[in-house]
């Protein structure tokens, strides 16, 4: 596609940046010429075809030299993309984010296979309230901070921004959950899309029926892509009994993600938090669901943030959570 060709142009331009030579781009329908850089998912047949086919995960890729050609990628565009960025940064020694030449850390020789293992623990940056994350520098900052998942509001993006965002998240191995089903054609084959947040904080007597209907509608439309519906629940004691007594309350979601604003709220005690976790933890175990906890991002400051974040993370871990969510409520300035 037009957007996917941007990865090809990126590789060509990086080579020109370092060598001063602009090599031609050749469609895989054209006759073969010697000493090509071949994207592995193209129709070019290479001597390592079977090794490419053997890749198990759509995020895995190969960087190899074979019969005078350089081969980058795997079984799909996104594995090719990951290989291209690795090749440019680590093998060629070009830092595209800061537009500077760096020392290469890898040397191309023979055959290198890059495996991919999905993270065992989810650290999710939820970015509903702040400016959209759109460029490589911002996504790398997420990765450097230890996040392996990000949740964004798709309605805040243009089509081009959505493409650039999914490209960079694929590059850095950060999974995406979206609020709002926009631009599906841009990312329908992207392996790092987990699904969509169908509703945030359903509450009240009709909450169960409301979110359940939305989840069923979503799965009918999008389960074919392998996506899952996500719901961010509220941890409030006045609904805990209803949740505990209803064996089907979470039947339509895979993950029990809940938040409970604790710090800065005089009406909530640590006992409240533990009782809420107890209910959600029990439901996660009994219904074989994943449990995600919550890191409160407001009502903390530089004097207590590290202790508060650690306390909330450890509380989630104590109740068996395999993921935590951090809600970002402000965009950093350039200086930050």
Q: How would you describe this protein?
A:
With 336 residues, this protein is an alpha/beta fold. The chain has ten helices and 14 strands. The protein has helices at 5-19, 49-53, 77-92, 136-144, 159-172, 184-187, 207-222, 237-245, 270-286, 305-318; strands spanning 37-39, 61-66, 69-73, 94-95, 100-101, 111-114, 122-127, 149-153, 175-179, 193-200, 228-234, 255-259, 290-295, 323-327. An eight-stranded parallel barrel has the order 7-8-9-10-11-12-13-14, surrounded by four helices. Strands 1-3-2-6 form a four-stranded mixed beta sheet. The chain has a two-stranded antiparallel sheet with strand order 4-5. Strand 2 and strand 3 form a beta hairpin. The two termini are 36 Å apart.
């Amino acid at each position: 596609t037009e957007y996917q060709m941007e990865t090809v142009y990126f590789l060509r331009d990086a080579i020109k940046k370092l060598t001063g030579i602009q090599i031609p781009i050749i469609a895989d329908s054209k006759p073969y010429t010697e000493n090509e850089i071949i994207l592995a998912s193209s129709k070019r047949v290479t001597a390592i075809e079977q090794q490419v086919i053997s890749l198990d995960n759509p995020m895995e890729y190969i960087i190899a030299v074979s019969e005078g050609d350089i081969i980058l990628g795997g079984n799909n565009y996104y594995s090719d993309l990951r290989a291209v960025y690795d090749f440019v940064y680590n093998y060629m020694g070009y830092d595209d984010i800061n537009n500077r030449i760096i020392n290469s850390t890898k040397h191309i020789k023979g055959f290198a296979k890059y495996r991919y293992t999905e993270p065992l623990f989810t650290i999710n940056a939820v970015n509903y309230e702040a400016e959209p994350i759109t460029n490589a520098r911002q996504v790398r900052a997420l990765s450097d901070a230890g996040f392996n998942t990000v949740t964004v509001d798709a309605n805040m993006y243009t089509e081009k921004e959505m493409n650039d965002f999914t490209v960079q998240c694929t590059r850095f191995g950060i999974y995406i959950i979206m609020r709002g089903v926009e631009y599906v054609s841009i990312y329908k084959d992207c392996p790092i899309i987990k699904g969509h947040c169908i509703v945030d904080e359903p509450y009240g007597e009709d909450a169960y029926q409301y979110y359940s209907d939305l989840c069923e509608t979503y799965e009918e439309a999008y389960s074919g892509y392998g996506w899952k519906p996500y719901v961010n629940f509220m941890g409030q004691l006045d609904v805990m009994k209803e949740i505990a007594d209803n064996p089907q309350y979470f039947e339509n979601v895979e993950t029990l993600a809940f938040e409970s604003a604790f710090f800065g709220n005089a009406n909530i005690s640590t006992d409240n938090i533990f009782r809420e976790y107890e209910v959600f933890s029990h439901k996660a175990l009994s219904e074989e669901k994943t449990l995600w906890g919550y890191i409160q991002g407001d009502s903390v400051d530089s004097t207590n943030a590290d202790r508060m974040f650690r306390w909330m993370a450890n509380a989630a871990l104590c109740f068996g959570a395999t993921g935590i969510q951090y809600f970002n409520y402000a965009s950093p300035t350039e200086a930050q």
